[in-house]
């Protein structure tokens, strides 16, 4: 399954273009622009599964760096500052990684 089977390619492209500059990535804005925040909880869990590159059930900091590239292969890598801010915003239980429920809560809130 690919992200474009859940989200429109045009919306993904717009969201990626909006955060091309280093340190301009805002997860909430990205989720709104790509249309993910309007999807069902089930679709958000599917997207989480795609983003969880190693299939561990969590998105770790190393996977987060390449977050934008999971949406568009030519996209940039998140900066360390953006990666840490994203992790802090979503990691409700402070275990250093984002679980499916934490991801869903961030996207749909």
TrEMBL record:
Listed GO MF terms: calcium ion binding
TM region positions: none
Chain sites annotated for binding Ca(2+) 1: 52, 54, 56, 58, 63
InterPro entries given in the database record: EF-hand-dom_pair, EF_Hand_1_Ca_BS, EF_hand_dom, Parvalbumin
Alphabetized UniProt keyword annotations: Calcium, Metal-binding, Muscle protein, Repeat
Family matches, as CDD domains: EFh_parvalbumin_beta
GO CC terms, sorted: cytoplasm
Record carries keyword Transmembrane: no
Tagged with keyword Repeat: yes
PROSITE patterns referenced in this protein's UniProt entry, alphabetically: EF_HAND_1, EF_HAND_2
Residues annotated as binding Ca(2+) 2: 91, 93, 95, 102
Family: Belongs to the parvalbumin family.
Protein's job: In muscle, parvalbumin is thought to be involved in relaxation after contraction. It binds two calcium ions.
Listed name of the protein: Parvalbumin
Organism: Amphiprion percula (Orange clownfish)
């Amino acid at each position: 399954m690919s992200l474009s089977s859940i989200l429109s390619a045009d919306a993904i492209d717009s969201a990626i273009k909006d955060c091309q500059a280093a340190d301009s990535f805002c997860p909430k804005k990205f989720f709104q622009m790509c249309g993910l925040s309007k999807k069902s909880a089930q679709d958000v869990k599917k997207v989480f599964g795609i983003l969880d590159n190693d299939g561990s059930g969590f998105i770790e900091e190393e996977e987060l760096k390449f977050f934008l590239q999971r949406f568009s292969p030519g996209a940039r890598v998140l900066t360390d500052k953006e990666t840490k801010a994203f992790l802090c915003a979503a990691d409700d239980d402070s275990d250093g990684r984002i679980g499916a429920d934490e991801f869903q809560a961030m996207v749909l809130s």
